[in-house]
Write a structure and sequence with these properties.
Helix content: 10-25%
CATH architecture: Roll
CATH superfamily: Phosphatidylinositol 3-kinase Catalytic Subunit, Chain A, domain 1
Largest sheet: 5 strands, mixed
Strand content: 25-35%
CATH topology: Ubiquitin-like (UB roll)
Shape: globular
Distance between the termini: 43 Å
Low-confidence stretches: 104-114
Strand order of the largest sheet: 2-1-5-3-4
CATH class: Alpha Beta
Number of helices: 2
Length: 114
């Protein structure tokens, strides 16, 4: 079976509040909620921290969608099936999901300040 590679950019702030980006590529068979939690744990977060993906609109900035189970991951995968590239954000506290960071702004921007 041929591999179907998906690219993920995980945006987060480290313990010094510095903006960071983790770039990861995973085979589609390895994309599950558990695998995404392992990804955020790899950069110092915990499973209880809040994981979001950026949902784009045809026009405009879009918004953040909370991910907390495999059903949410499946919906995310179906939305990005053509691109196979997803922007993820992880926070220790709930954020304003109505505003997603824009492509033209700094690569990692706190949606609370947008």
């Amino acid at each position: 079976m041929a591999m179907e590679i998906w690219n993920f950019n995980l945006y987060y702030k480290d313990e010094n509040q510095q903006h960071k980006v983790l770039e990861a590529s995973l085979d589609r068979t390895d994309v599950s909620y558990y695998d995404l939690v392992r990804m955020i744990e790899g950069v110092g977060f915990k499973a209880i921290d809040l994981l979001y993906h950026r949902k784009k609109y045809p026009r405009g900035r879009g918004h953040l969608v909370h991910i907390n189970n495999d059903s949410h991951v499946s919906k995310m995968i179906s939305e990005y099936n053509n691109e196979k590239k997803v922007q993820l954000y992880v926070y220790k506290e709930r954020v304003n999901i109505d505003v997603a960071p824009s492509d033209t702004h700094v690569r990692m921007m706190d949606p609370l300040q947008a």
